[in-house]
Specification:
The complex is a heterodimer of chains A (366) and B (437). By secondary structure, chain A is mainly alpha-helical. Chain A has one domain: Orthogonal Bundle (Ammonium transporter fold), CATH 1.10.3430. Chain A has 16 helices and no strands. In chain A, helix 1 packs antiparallel against helix 2. Chain A is globular, with a radius of gyration of 24 Å. The N and C termini of chain A lie far apart (52 Å). The C terminus of chain A is likely disordered. Chain B has 437 residues and is of the alpha/beta class. Chain B has 4 domains: 76 residues, OB fold (Dihydrolipoamide Acetyltransferase, E2P), CATH 2.40.50; 164 residues, Rossmann fold, CATH 3.40.50; 71 residues, Ubiquitin-like (UB roll), CATH 3.10.20.600; 68 residues, no CATH class. Helices cover 27% and strands 21% of the residues of chain B. Chain B contains 14 helices and 18 strands. In chain B, the strands form 4 sheets. Chain B has a 6-stranded mixed β-sheet with strand order 2-15-14-18-16-17, covered by helices on one side. The chains are: A mainly alpha (366), B alpha/beta (437). At the A-B interface, helix 1 and helix 16 of A face strand 16, strand 17, helix 11, helix 12 and helix 13 of B.
Chain lengths: 366, 437
Amino acid sequence: MSSKKTKTTLADYDLVLDQSPHIFEKWSSQWIMLQVIIALLLPLAAGTYFFGLQVLWITGIAVLTSVISEYLYERLVRKRVTITDLSAVVTGMLIGLSMPNGVTWYSTVIVSIIAIIFIKMIPGGIGKNRFNPAVGGRIIYLMAPWIVNTFVSGEDVLTTASSAEAITSATPTDLVASATPLYYISSGAAEVPDGAQTLWNLFLGNQGGWGGSLGETSSLAILIAMLYLILRRIINPKIPALYIGTFALIMLVYSGFDFEYMMYHLFSGALLLAATFMITDYASGGITPMGRVLFPIGAAILTAAFRINSFSPEGVGFSILIMNAIIPFLDKLVMPKIYGHKKRPQVHSDYSITEPLKKRDVLTEN
Amino acid sequence: MRLKTKQKATFPKHNKSRTHDKAIERIDAPAIMVYPMSMHIGAPAKPLVEVGSSVKVGTLIGEAQGFISANVYSSVSGEVISIEEREVLSGIHTCVIVKNDGSYVEEPPFPEAGDNVAPDMVPELIRRAGISGMGGATFPTDVKMRPPKDKKIDTLILNGAECEPYSTSDFRTMVEYADEIMEGVRVIDGVLNVDKVYIGIEDNAVEAGEALKKAAKGYDKVEIKVLEAKYPQGSEKQLIENCTGRQVPSGGLPADIGCVVSNVGTFQAIYRAVRLGKPMVERVTTVTGTPIADPKNLLVRIGTPIDDVIDICGGFQEAPRKVIHGGPMMGKTIKDGAIPISKGTTHITFLTAQEVDDEERMDCIRCSECINVCPVSLQPILISNAYERGDIEKAEQLGAMDCIECGNCSFICPSKIPLLDNIRKAKTAIKQNTKAV
């Protein structure tokens, strides 16, 4: 043939040299956060349906405040701005949905700022916060009246009045903690009292307009959101299953196998919302396979203990924070056994991955 | 029966359909052939020829040096035109350049080879033939077949779990040369006298299992393990555990737990060396990827420069951005088309610019996916962080040296943290520390 093609050689192409691996899973941290946001739209919609437009308004304020706080903080300390990773949006949505019915906009703003600045950014930003910002914000909100009473008016409500009433009576209405129907069945009661909402209404979210915080009113919406996250492989189904399962088991045993009582507990308060969005939080949960089993079990035991016997009917938040605090130590004890080794690895220095990266810039240059 | 394995893994797209059903095609060698003296792990071979020497197919041109080393043979007939230092896959090494006269005159076969070779002679012939592991790691095969006297080998494992995406060279070899592979197994069994032979394949290579089963008819020791197709199913340590339930101790060898493992193609080479008296001068290589117009499984003479197989596979239909010797999970990128196909070239993968997406690194969100996919149960993010903070001791305590460099951690990381890069650097630093002490 006359028109013989010239030989193809690699020299004619612009090629890159690189270390393996050369292909990557098609996902990103941003995409993960986006999936969580999509899932959160369900409880948001349900909350709006039952509580009205204030839910959108409050959640919007929380999201906006969270994102702006993170942006301003990062500009202030001259760090790379990370708001595009969408994690502040997730935190904001969770804070908004954790607020009680009738909350004021300025309370929401304060809680969001505290959550982002003090719980997320100061410890190092995304992935380095030991405590869940949304839960932390929620608990600070819950504790606000107590803090104000103790440190401002010098009166210790915990000793002057008896448990749960102290919190509720000592607070303005808009600062009352979330789970109101739960109040009836907590504080030691081992059976469902008369006058409580029907189980079906609790499940759907129709709690007479005064039950649960804005986002946790509809168990149905939350369960669909959970299913979505599981199908998208964002959360490991083991985690909510262990949390809910352990909690349900304890409640069943405690009530002498009163199934209805157990179901009331499951469908009220922050339990399902937490099981879906908070227990499963990456940054503040366990990282070892065993740690990810211990975290939900521990949180479930604590939640049950709080609900059965405590000054606050809402033990979910406290349980998560306590587990947040101890999980790094548990993780260190249950590090996976490396292939070919008889013992778990022994690390003599600090274990947590939240340590600041001191020499990073120096090392990544060469 | 497909065996579900609990081994932690990732599921990269197989990308094997391009060449899965394409029969192995023998190709002619080009005019200029390149023989690096180091196509194996261990000491480089010493050139035995000079510029101007005439060679035949099967002429020994590089002699193994030391216990862990391998001979190098000419795969064409012709004349040595140069002996020079060149950058090849394993670094800068001496290469013998041969001008191919196109007549393929062959050297006589090894006189000791045949149907009745004494067991003692088998490792000798394997060594003489210059065989090194054909799965990519290129460890000299004769060393594996001479286990220390105090170690009883009871299990022989053939690695046909071709878990690297894009590669079909092992698959085609198993389908088309099942009889030769099984004959190689009989040869080795005659030396090691094992109780059990396992052949591990993935469940996307069913035809290979059928072909091997047919070839092993009446050979009761042989059991074919069809494993779930996931990455890195073909990693030696994982394959041993999946077949026998045993774990190679950290820092140890398969022989420590009575196992010898080698790639399926290696057994074909053993058959050819011991029964036919032929040295290792050719291998099956898959040339594939989106840029390649007509991807193929080729039977290539070792020493053929990569530039010379592109047009045989239809040239480029799209511009390549990355050329990988091996697969996208563990392969090495190359730029120089004069680098030859060597003993360990399972496949050459070409990727387009679109397929090479370099996304920006973000902060770790602690999703713990890297921990969930590490086949040796390391905690890659912790090792990476320890290294980046300069805490080499902690990287070592966390087991950096046990890393098999499969790449799963970097592959899965949603924040695109170069975990494996950092672990590799940590390993280098640990080795330097150990030397210094």
